[in-house]
Amino acid sequence: MWTTSIPWDKLPQTLRDAVIIRDKLRVRYLWVDALCIVQDDANHMAKEIAAVPDVYQNSAFTIAASSASNVRQGFLAKRSRADDPTSIFQLRYQVENPEEVGSIILIRAKIDPEPLDTRAWALQERLLSPRTIEFGTRQLRCFCQHNTRGITDGWRQAPEANDARQDQLEDNWYRLVKVYSNRALTKPEDRILAISGIAERYGRVFGDQYCAGMWRSTFANALYWQPGHNAGPQPRPTKWQGPSWSWTSVNAPVDFPHLIGSDSKHKPIIMAVDTKLVNPDDPYGAVQEGSCQLIVKARLSPAALRFETDIDGKLKARAGSISMGGKADVFEIPISYDAVEPEPERGENNAVFLELSSVLEDHRWSTRGLVARGKGGTNIFSRIGTFDYSGQHNRTRQENESVED
After folding, report:
1. How many CB atoms neighbour CB 350 within 10 A?
2. ∠ CA 123-125-128 to the nearest 5 degrees?
3. Could you give the CA distance from residue 169 to residue 366 in angstroms, rounded to a whole number?
4. Nearest to 286 by CA among 252, 241, 251, 247
5. Bridge partners of 315?
6. Which of 29, 149, 196, 253 is 20 to 30 A from 106 via CA?
7. What are the 10-residue block averages of pLDDT along the chain, 405 residues in total?
8. Which of 53, 126, 40, 31 is nearest to 282 (CA)?
9. Phi/psi of residue 263, each to 5°?
């Protein structure tokens, strides 16, 4: 372990380039998380991760090595404007003054997300830092929180957009989570930790209660999160990442679709949310496994799960109920699984529909909610997916019926 100095030849190229930038800009100190946080000390890591928001918020600027795929690649190499030099085309251009002749250069280039835009931990570095110097694949960009377009040394004025790119904080936490969930983690169990610094900023501004990646004031609506349609469900994580009702429990990109109608008359009543933190000094950090309890008052209907394989070989899940809407009919409903379940668990049919939202429009009853699996004949359930059902209005179910009925 280096405690007083690190030989220059022991530093990987990306860190050498960062030291060069620090020296050129005459800044005295350089903070590198991989060096300043003891990586194999869980207690030290928990303490320092909780302090990360202060590190970035109080920095002079952050160096974003966006073009570097890894710490050995560096980011100060000569840039190439085109993937194929033969695809560059120069077009003569003449303005109104005949004596002024210039040119426009057209190139064919494949625009992929910068490597840094694919890393989950890097999002809070970007959003919490007051100023950023970004070394991209085709340009240098300097920007701040008040001017996210900033200034560049060419190529394009605005950065190339992609599903994982975000340059400023916004009021909607869940739109930010959607961006964040499109990024990758080396350790998936860090899913809640790598966004904790941003959560701390939101909590300080809005004064809301943070519950394993979600906020108390928006809980009833946010429970209806789903894996992104493009990615689909991923295998169930082998290590615990968060309670089943939270998006932190899965590894897929997630979305928060709006519930059916903002005037829904049937919403769940959140009775209590109880979580225990791994680090009591970090209210926005990881929670203890098995400690998260959500108590909800909502309408339940028994469900039977059924699985089938489509013509493309993809596993499809459906659920049947004989009491959806209080009528003795069989309702078969496609369901969206949060994660691909181990095959032995697919045969367990102790499942229920938990209604989150329902609306009566034009004699049709529309409802959305969660699919959950019971534990040992108790009133304790684990979420496994979501459902969306729309059917002819049933007279036995009244428009003004509530979860109390």
Report:
1. 15
2. 105
3. 34
4. 241
5. 309
6. 149
7. 83 96 94 86 82 90 94 88 66 74 75 89 93 92 90 79 83 91 92 93 91 90 86 82 94 78 63 89 89 87 75 66 54 81 64 83 80 82 88 52 47
8. 53
9. -100, 25
